[in-house]
Amino acid sequence: MTDKTNDPVAMWQKMMGEMEKGFNSFANQAMSSPEFSQALNRAGGVAAGAQKQLGELMEKYLVTMNLPSREQVTALAERLQSIEGQIGEMKSMLSQIAASSGISQSFDAAPRPPRTKRPPSENGGQT
């Protein structure tokens, strides 16, 4: 077996362990200081402000390009969903009315146009 004092892998592991301990103690010390928390709060505020400005800029760009914003598309989707729900309720009410009056009509299928073309006569189209 190799000697532990001359083993390069063991030396590397020991060095990495010591570096990790040093970094952890430095990070814990830095994070416990009030300056660190102030700097972190300022950075968070700057990021939130930048995100808000970008959102406003994007809104102006979309208005200029005559395109809907995310909020407008969401509002449209909600309205459409509400309308579809109301149509569904109307279909079920019409189906109930049709069933109670004895009318057999399906409201799900689109109405078909009247058939105007006649099939050929039995003698091959000649009179």
From TrEMBL:
Stretches for region Disordered: 98-127
Protein name: Poly(R)-hydroxyalkanoic acid synthase subunit (PHA_synth_III_E)
Native source organism of the sequence: Bradyrhizobium huanghuaihaiense
Lineage, broadest ranks: Bacteria, Pseudomonadati, Pseudomonadota, Alphaproteobacteria, Hyphomicrobiales
